[in-house]
Amino acid sequence: MIKKNVAIVGVTGYTGMELVRILSTHPGFEIAAVTSRSNAGMALQEIYPHLENTSCGLLPVTIPEPDLVARDSELVFLAVPHSKAMELASSFIELGVKVVDLSADFRISDEKVYAHWYGLKHKHTGLLKKAVYGLPEIYAQEIAKASITANPGCYPTSVILALYPALKKGLVKPQGIIVDSKSGASGAGREPRTATLFCEVTDSFKAYNLGKHRHTPEMEQELSKACGQDIVINFSPHLVPMSRGILSTCYALIDKKVSQGEITQMYEKFYRKNPWVRVMPQGRLPETRWVRGTMFCDLGIVLDERTGRLIIVSCIDNLCRGASGQAVANANLMCGFEAGMGLDQQPLMP
Amino acid sequence: MIKKNVAIVGVTGYTGMELVRILSTHPGFEIAAVTSRSNAGMALQEIYPHLENTSCGLLPVTIPEPDLVARDSELVFLAVPHSKAMELASSFIELGVKVVDLSADFRISDEKVYAHWYGLKHKHTGLLKKAVYGLPEIYAQEIAKASITANPGCYPTSVILALYPALKKGLVKPQGIIVDSKSGASGAGREPRTATLFCEVTDSFKAYNLGKHRHTPEMEQELSKACGQDIVINFSPHLVPMSRGILSTCYALIDKKVSQGEITQMYEKFYRKNPWVRVMPQGRLPETRWVRGTMFCDLGIVLDERTGRLIIVSCIDNLCRGASGQAVANANLMCGFEAGMGLDQQPLMP
Amino acid sequence: MIKKNVAIVGVTGYTGMELVRILSTHPGFEIAAVTSRSNAGMALQEIYPHLENTSCGLLPVTIPEPDLVARDSELVFLAVPHSKAMELASSFIELGVKVVDLSADFRISDEKVYAHWYGLKHKHTGLLKKAVYGLPEIYAQEIAKASITANPGCYPTSVILALYPALKKGLVKPQGIIVDSKSGASGAGREPRTATLFCEVTDSFKAYNLGKHRHTPEMEQELSKACGQDIVINFSPHLVPMSRGILSTCYALIDKKVSQGEITQMYEKFYRKNPWVRVMPQGRLPETRWVRGTMFCDLGIVLDERTGRLIIVSCIDNLCRGASGQAVANANLMCGFEAGMGLDQQPLMP
Amino acid sequence: MIKKNVAIVGVTGYTGMELVRILSTHPGFEIAAVTSRSNAGMALQEIYPHLENTSCGLLPVTIPEPDLVARDSELVFLAVPHSKAMELASSFIELGVKVVDLSADFRISDEKVYAHWYGLKHKHTGLLKKAVYGLPEIYAQEIAKASITANPGCYPTSVILALYPALKKGLVKPQGIIVDSKSGASGAGREPRTATLFCEVTDSFKAYNLGKHRHTPEMEQELSKACGQDIVINFSPHLVPMSRGILSTCYALIDKKVSQGEITQMYEKFYRKNPWVRVMPQGRLPETRWVRGTMFCDLGIVLDERTGRLIIVSCIDNLCRGASGQAVANANLMCGFEAGMGLDQQPLMP
Predict the structure, then answer these.
(1) Active site includes C154?
(2) CATH topology of domain A155-318
(3) What ipTM score was computed for the predicted complex, to two decimals?
(4) Whole-prediction pTM value?
């Protein structure tokens, strides 16, 4: 098979690092370029010694110059902060290069909502209209035709997959949904900050950004589509002293008389063509380690009849399924491959 | 000051270990006996090498025989599993020894509720009627007169302190409360099990016992008293890869038009005589490490007007405030001391 | 390619779990059987929920009966405790099945040394003579012809690869070698014990078995061959609060006037056909995370002229390179495959 | 008792934080000032929310201006980087204020050795001559008379206490000593750096600065005094994924025919007036958690007759015993108190 050339713009963060891990053994893609303004001129293994003697160790790190990158690549992964991403995306699209944007810049279709939550006016609203929300279980067909996909946020990936079927099928009320999420520290990025030092994170647990995390509108947008009405969600993120993994505990009020068995069956049916979503059998609840390094989204279902609530516990690996792995799935679809190509990693346990 | 003799029945678990830590520097209590059936005959420092050269290292471990223990002690801490505790408590009370029971046996005043959740008929319902729920911020006066106190569960301590004022003052609706709690692994005890091995817990996160954890009726009992009606709570515990600490995120629907500032003031006023409850200023959320090894209960308050919800984040140290420290506070009150005697530990940071 | 059938005897420990992870994507091997006396009758994914929707999830767990296992498999991995392994190995060899033994039973060629360190008389000394020590960098040719290989211990793998070249080339004195090793907790196995509970291991560090760890004679045997004389080593293992990884710091007295650059070159030359051994450039020291989940052995070299010592720091993943991955490498060679088939995993970072 | 006023110069690092923890319950000292250039003007609890409702929470943070600090304090703790410390120390001594310097500036009595290892000319060599090395077990009498003490480094504290008796008594050879040390991440300080982020430290282990760590000459200086000749040590520090704790494994060649029991007795005798040094009974090895938050130094002794080596394993809490606690012990002695005043903390377990 002739491989297609792709580029990673922004290789020095954790999502860039994870893109390298996944793409390095991908049968359909060849990494043609990796960029980083601060490390340009080095070999990749000088930044990441763990890549020595792997297929990517000697890749030269170059500057993130769209003209240069576009010469060799037909698709580019943008692993840069929001607001920078929209500029780069626009340049690459004009140069005829497909874009998978891992930032938030193209996730929110309503530019006013984007401006409200991100404190920033969107500068490429034309391109925004073309962007497809890159959640393969729901938008595989649209993604396959897209020139730009907005790779979902890590929290929204875990939450949308958990609640979409229940809302779509009218199992639960759209009002009063609460999402209590917990993430490993890699979600906080690789920039040095006191708050993410080892001694500040280990052996502790905290909540942050309650009621104002920027992933909220993304969940609301997609879940509103599921139930056909505008919904509002209580979203509460927390920081877990671990590297990878997100667990979201989602609470919704039951709106139909159903048994737990029926709900489980309904979920299994909904996701029967999507092997990455694993609906746990009754009585089992997922653990983030079961999905470490993989594309799996594990769902544990609890019908609490005492309180009339459906509780869905959802686990993903925030860096793989919640970012770089999902980006590769989108790239696969955009390039005519199977969604799962190169993404059959097993969980690393223990 | 002449110290009062006390005994620890069941010293080999984490709550027994924590009782030793606290009592060893207590100005009013002398540890007269520590018991453990499996380790009787050893010196305490043979089980716990960290106690060498401390005041308690040479204490002999004896068998948990009430007659023997009662000879030297006027108060006993029961750090044994539920069901065993009720038998021992009854014996000690008959022998004229005061009891602080760290198990669940005397927490649920309705024996039917106890039987339902614990799968066990209560054998000492007479004594159950006399037992006082040992939460000093609410029941200090009753505790001072009690011969037996039921030391609150770790999760309920964090939750009741968080929600009591809001329910008491009618700030929130009694219906639809959700409590999403996260605990360190010491809450799972010191018995060897595969599920609590280091490699099974570290770098992972999970939910467990959703909708059926035994601490649920305890929260419901106390919070029902706060609002004057029977309430039902969604309680979801989770396991954090850390040793100590509980963080509970509590969600309730706002029932009064108030500002966040007013809620904070109301909480500060409610707890103004209780220095252990620290109401965070607006914009700050607690972290479990801030209370490590202490009696503090830190409360972060968020009024989410978008969704009409009050969110209270509550942090305690599950072993100190949530178990052994609180037990000592109860013992202090039962013996005529200040609640806080010997309990002014600073958090160990980092 | 027609795959060869292999079996895993003893699938419920961490090395069994790791064998499943590696073999599940191996292009040349098919897992024909997995055994566990205690879990026989279950599907593998009932024991290991993380395997659902993977190629191995539905494998039936069977009893470890050699006759049954031998029907379908031409090679068997023994992931059982020592002393049990020698019996099983003998049975399988008699049934014409090749054996990779992950236990210590066939590592020590001198039965008296085995008896001394393991407190046990070897019962199959005939087979012991046939067994090849399965360290591919040194014994690839012998392994390729063997019917039984003794998979090296985790510590010895890290130590032999670190010191073999220096001793072979006479760079250092054979006397006075000190090896200070540090291992993650997965090396302690998956049996529930108080000492390996999360709360006993996390946020702490300890030494154990100083001067008497059973991996000592294995290192001495192989390194004696390297230098042509019987040597004695100080081996000190320690427990690190992490899951995977071994780092060994090896100290030897310089016996030749060489520069650090020359030593590095000599090591690079020695391992130039062995891509798994990565000799770090001067000034870089390895970290266990760089080899997580892989076959790499990273060597950091420091010539301390002030003290006349050569210090080699060696990192491996104890479960992959130090056990199951190396076992698969041996199986590859024994079956006529390339040593590295199916073993090109990238490190999982972070 | 009338308390003596002391000041902490440099309160925003981990040693400053630990000084606050210890001094806040000290019966003889009152914290009169805490300084931090970057946080001046705030209350201490604004920087450290865990201090709310403790005796120190409302202390104003001021600028580190010697004239101002000297007005209210008779002793000052310098918790600032080396080279800055020597300037401040000189100013405070001139102002008649006693100094406990937690930096390295006054530890090395030979200014040439200081210049060589720290790449810096000492500017206050007169004061250097007056400074006493603040290890109470060895220099208690000199400390009591000193106006300035050089608080020992964390690694040297663990190593000197481990090897001093053996060298003093001629049990081991002064040549060929190897010290392999492992430290928690708090030793790396609180400045934000990529290398000390949670995700870079957790679940990993590494060596660093082999053969060139600046604590080396400090060990050599003190241990040379013990044996009466200049010695050279191989010192190898490593980073453990934990917050607090140092474990040093020290190797020396036996020079006298003695039994393990005799060595243990000799150590017990040497430290019999020093309750902080706990000599473990034969067969027991220390764990860093046993000393967490305390002044203890736990020594495990192994005589390895097979290799002719004495191995001493030494554990301390790097922040308490290895820095701030030891600084308070020195301050105690310099102010005429018992060395242990206010320092009887119990280990926080688990």
Answers:
(1) yes
(2) Dihydrodipicolinate Reductase; domain 2 (3.30.360)
(3) 0.97
(4) 0.97
